[in-house]
Amino acid sequence: MLTALTPEDPRTQAKIWKLYRDYFDVSERKRRWNLREDIPWDQCNPGLDPAIADVVETFCMVELFLPDYLAKQLPQVRGNKGRSWMLASWGYEESKHSMALNDWMLGGKHRTERQLNEMDTSVFEREWGLKYDDPLASVVYTMVQEIATRVNYRNLRKIAGGQCPALDQVLEFVQIDEAAHGGFFRQLVSIYLEEDRAATLERIRLVINTFSMPADLLLANGRQRMADIVALGIFDDRIYLNEVVTPLLAQLGLTRADIRGPRAIRVA
Known about the structure:
This protein is mainly α. The chain has one domain: Ribonucleotide Reductase, subunit A. The protein has eleven helices and no strands. The chain starts with 9 loop residues before the first helix and ends in a 16-residue tail after the last helix.
């Protein structure tokens, strides 16, 4: 059972707000990209391996749950300006990711408009729900998820190998965004570690040991889609431990002993 977290005082909220403003300023100055103008849409490759297009579709479907992600998480942090404003900014960027993946599938003739409409319908028939009814556990989960998502996009880009300049640019932009998201949430968790180490460690331990990728649980054929991702070498248990958990713990100043517990990740 999770122990109670000390309520956030004005000093903690001020730290979080400064963290968000710094994140926002850097994003505006260095990272924003234009969906119409910054991607070479005339260089979509319709001959790309269909397995890659299938993974792009999976990632696009997960992004389509954005209304649920925001509707369920915002009420948890409505009174925390830094966290709620970050969710609004995060939602804007995730919506761009969804549109970019959608437009690539259409532009490269990997899916028709009808197929994409059916994809939308199939997604909206299901609903994402909070895995943790606790705002601190939720932010720890978001931290891990964003870092894992960045690894997924980076590895997909490697596998695509630059064979499609349009997809290569989309995946570069998206993985940079995801890295920025993961960095923000990691710094946010670091603030909570300073404020209430025991409660924060408890949630880090819980999330890391029970983490699962969204596609596995959200999509009607999620297990098969995750198996395809594993088969391509994009993400699996080993990658999770070596490329998500290990560097994350080092950045947080923690060790595996700090999060020791039963492992329950489901990636296949």
